[in-house]
C-alpha cells in the first residue's frame, strides 16, 4: 500500500511539473502596425511571448518577407547589459522587452501548402530554409506555423511535416502550430488540423478561438462564450501544458463590406450597446457592430486557470486600444 501511494504521489508530482504554474500570455503583432507608445499589456497582462507576423512560404518552399519581423525583434529586444562602476542604475527604454520572440510562418496561398506537403524536394527545401533561418538569427526563440485553408487531404502530410521540422530544429528552439477551433468552423478548414497528432509532434498548439462570426457569415460575436465553451469540451484529449487559447482583441462591423474594429472604433459608434454572449452589439447604418466584453476575457482567464492550459494568445496588438 505504501509503495502504491508513493507511486501515485510521484505521478501526481510529475503531472504538476509538466503543467504551467501560471497562465502565460502570447501576443501576435504585425510589425508595421505597432501603435506609438504601446504598453505591451493586452487586457492588462504582461506578455511572455511575442509572435511577429508577415513571413510566408511560397510554392518553391522559400521563406519570404522576414525583414519586418526581424527589424521589429531587433527594435524591441532587451539591449545587452553594460557593466557600471558607479552605484547609479539606469532603466532601459520602455520599448525594450524581455520576452521570447517567435516568427509566424504562413503560406502565400493554399496551393503553396499543397505543393510543400506533397513534393518531397520542396518539403525538404522549406524545412532546411526554416532551420537555417533560426540558426542565423539568435533573437528568434521559435517558429509558429500557420498553414490555413489547405485541403484536409494533406492533413497527415502536415503532421509529418511538423514532425520533421521539429526534429531538425532540435531542443534549443520551440515549434508551435496555430490551428482552427475544432467546433463551429467549416469542416474543410478544421479537418486539415489533426489536433492530437499535431500536439504530439510540436511544443504547443494555439487554438484560434475567434472568427466564429466573420466576413461571409451572419452577424454575431467574434468569440461567443457558448461557442468557446463547446470548443473547450472538444479539447479534452489534448495535453493541457501544450494548449494556448487564442483570444480576439478585435470586433467586426457587419454589412455589405464587413470590416474589423478596434475597441476605440467600436466605442466611437454613437449607438446604445447591448451585451450578448460575451460581446457588445451596436446597430449602425451599415450594419451591426460587435466587440468583445470584459466578461469574455474573464471567461478566457477562468478557462485557462481551471484547466491549467499553457496560456492565452491574443490576436492582435493594437486592436484593444
Automatic annotation (TrEMBL):
SUPFAM superfamilies: (Trans)glycosidases. One of its GO terms (biological process) is carbohydrate metabolic process. InterPro entries: GH (IPR017853), Glyco_hydro18_cat (IPR001223). Residues 46-321 form the GH18 domain. It comes from the Bacteria. This is GH18 domain-containing protein. It comes from Turneriella parva (strain ATCC BAA-1111 / DSM 21527 / NCTC 11395 / H) (Leptospira parva). The lineage of its organism: Bacteria, Pseudomonadati, Spirochaetota, Spirochaetia, Leptospirales.
Amino acid at each position: 500500500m505504501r509503495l502504491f501511494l508513493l507511486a501515485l504521489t510521484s505521478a501526481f508530482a510529475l503531472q504538476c511539473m509538466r503543467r504551467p504554474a501560471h497562465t502565460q500570455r502570447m501576443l501576435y503583432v504585425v510589425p508595421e502596425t505597432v501603435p506609438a507608445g504601446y504598453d505591451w499589456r493586452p487586457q492588462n497582462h504582461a506578455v511572455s511571448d511575442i509572435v511577429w507576423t508577415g513571413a510566408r512560404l511560397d510554392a518553391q518552399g522559400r521563406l519570404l518577407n522576414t525583414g519586418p519581423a526581424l527589424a521589429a525583434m531587433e527594435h524591441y529586444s532587451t539591449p545587452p547589459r553594460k557593466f557600471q562602476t558607479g552605484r547609479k542604475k539606469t532603466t532601459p527604454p520602455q520599448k525594450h522587452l524581455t520576452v521570447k520572440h517567435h516568427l509566424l510562418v504562413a503560406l502565400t496561398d493554399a496551393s503553396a501548402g499543397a505543393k510543400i506537403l506533397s513534393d518531397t524536394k520542396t518539403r525538404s527545401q522549406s524545412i532546411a530554409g526554416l532551420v537555417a533561418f533560426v540558426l542565423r538569427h539568435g533573437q528568434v526563440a521559435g517558429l509558429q506555423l500557420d498553414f490555413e485553408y489547405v485541403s484536409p487531404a494533406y492533413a497527415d502530410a502536415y503532421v509529418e511535416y511538423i514532425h520533421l521540422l521539429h526534429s531538425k530544429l532540435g531542443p534549443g528552439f520551440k515549434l508551435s502550430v496555430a490551428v482552427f477551433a475544432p467546433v463551429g468552423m467549416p469542416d474543410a478548414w478544421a479537418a486539415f488540423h489533426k489536433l492530437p497528432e499535431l500536439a504530439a509532434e510540436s511544443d504547443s498548439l494555439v487554438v484560434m478561438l475567434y472568427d466564429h462570426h466573420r466576413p461571409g457569415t451572419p452577424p454575431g460575436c467574434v468569440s461567443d462564450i457558448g461557442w468557446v465553451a463547446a470548443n473547450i469540451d472538444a479539447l479534452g484529449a489534448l495535453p493541457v501544458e501544450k494548449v494556448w487559447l487564442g483570444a480576439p482583441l478585435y470586433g467586426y462591423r457587419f454589412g455589405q463590406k464587413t470590416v474589423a474594429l478596434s475597441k476605440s472604433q467600436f466605442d466611437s459608434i454613437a449607438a446604445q450597446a447591448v451585451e450578448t454572449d460575451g460581446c457588445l452589439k451596436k446597430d449602425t447604418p451599415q450594419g451591426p457592430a460587435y466587440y468583445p466584453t470584459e466578461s469574455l476575457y474573464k471567461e478566457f482567464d477562468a478557462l485557462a486557470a481551471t484547466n491549467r492550459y499553457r496560456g492565452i494568445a491574443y490576436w492582435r496588438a493594437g486592436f484593444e486600444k
